[in-house]
Amino acid sequence: MYPEHHSHAPAERAVTVHQPTPLPRAVATPTPMVHVQPEAVPAVASIVLPDGRVVTGYAINPAQPEPLAAKPPVSRAAVNVALGGVGFLAVCGGLLLLTSFIAALTAFITQLITLAAVIFGGWIAVQVFSTGHQGGNTFHIRKAVIKRNKFYG
Questions:
Q1: Which residues pair with 44 in a beta bridge?
Q2: Cα(61)–Cα(57) distance, rounded to whole angstroms?
Q3: Which residues contact 55 (CB under 8 A, 6 or more apart)?
Q4: CA R_g for the chain
Q5: Torsion sign, CA atoms 130, 132, 136, 139
Q6: Residue 46 needs a FRET pair 20 to 30 A away by CA distance; which of 22, 84, 90, 110 works?
Q7: 151: how many CB neighbours lie within 10 A of its CB?
Q8: Strand pairing of 44-48 and 54-58?
Q9: What pLDDT, on a 0 to 100 scale, did the predictor assign at position 93?
Q10: Which of 48, 47, 45 is nearest to 58 (CA)?
């Protein structure tokens, strides 16, 4: 069921060993001086080390430390208290306006009800005190006799 295990001697296995190839030493030749304007920074910089090797690479600006956070002239607690006070005043002002609006609306509705009562009362008064007959019967209640919900006068 399982493949048979064969033990191989170390000499029978094919092993490839890779040895590093040493690089020949670079001969340091002095590089000619190139005059560059002081404001210009070359895109690629080359440095000659004391042992004669030349290192070429990009110039990197040194890391600038982050500036210290400027302390605000007013403490944060004072700012929070001031903002809380402004918010409280805004809420109080809004409640005052809401109360005023509700009072004005109540007065307006009261005036409408009074106006309707005056108009309706005037109409009733005109109906009661009108002198003309409008085709109906006039009953004098003191003289009338009421029998079975009918007036007899």
A1: 58
A2: 13
A3: 46, 47, 48, 49
A4: 56
A5: positive
A6: 22
A7: 13
A8: antiparallel
A9: 94
A10: 45
- Determine the Cα–Cα distance for residues 34 and 60; give it in Å rounded to an integer: 20
Q: Which residue has the tokens 């895109």?
A: 43
Q: Which residues contact 27 (CB under 8 A, 6 or more apart)?
A: 52
Q: Find, among 43, 47, 48, the residue nearest to 60 by Cα.
A: 43
Our measurement of the distance from residue 97's CA atom to the centroid of its chain's CA atoms, rounded to an integer in Å, reads: 27
Residue-by-residue pLDDT tens, the chain, 153 positions = 555 666 655 555 566 777 777 777 777 677 777 665 556 555 677 788 888 888 887 767 777 888 877 777 888 888 899 999 999 999 999 999 999 999 999 999 999 999 999 999 988 888 877 765 555 555 556 655 555 566 555
pTM, two decimals, is 0.34
Structure tokens at 38: 């002081």
Q: What is the pLDDT of residues 109-134, one digit of tens each?
A: 999 999 999 999 988 888 877 765 55
* Phi and psi angles of residue 18, each rounded to the nearest 5 degrees, phi first: -100, 125
What is the Cα–Cα distance from 151 to 139, expressed in whole angstroms? 8
What type of residue is 33?
Answer: M
Q: Of 67, 61, 59, 55, nearest to 31 (Cα)?
A: 55
